[in-house]
Design goal:
- This protein is mainly alpha-helical and about 190 residues long.
- It is built from eight helices and no strands.
Amino acid sequence: SLGAVMALAAGLAVVLWRQARLGRWSRERLTQAVSALMVLVAVGLAIRAVTRSDNQLNWEHFTAGRAAIWGAAWPYLVDGWLFGHGLGSWWMWADAYSEAKIGPSVTLQAHNEYLQLAFELGAVGLVLGLLSLVVLARRARHALESSDWPWVGVLAAVMVNALVSPPLHLPSHAVVALFAVARVSRYTLTPR
């Protein structure tokens, strides 16, 4: 799946950048090369997803049906844009959607953590979540220079995967992500 490939590539980019025992200029070039490779992989997957004879991208195939679910959720997201519909409301909406469209309970996760956060907690929750990620990213810069640098790769992989999967709603993934957050959060934003 595209999410797993991109998450792996994001984690790999952190590992390659950190492990390169080259000068700073070379690290930047290496990171750019890995990023370019990730884009090429994504483009390759998009090309493979083209299934119609008119060479138009079939988004339903490309997103494994998630685009239809996200589209169906959009009016509800707009309706509760400021404060959302409450924690757990995605499940109630998705259960009703699944029953009406395709059968019993298939879409209990949005397969996009950011969309689900906005649906449940609105713009307020999404802004607070994104601010938390900004603070975490700033701390991750300091963690890259420590023995905790692999946890930055784990966080990068989780955050990228969260665009198309529910990693924070899967207990085993969430525990690893929380441990990574704890390891990276211990670094202050200013040197001690």
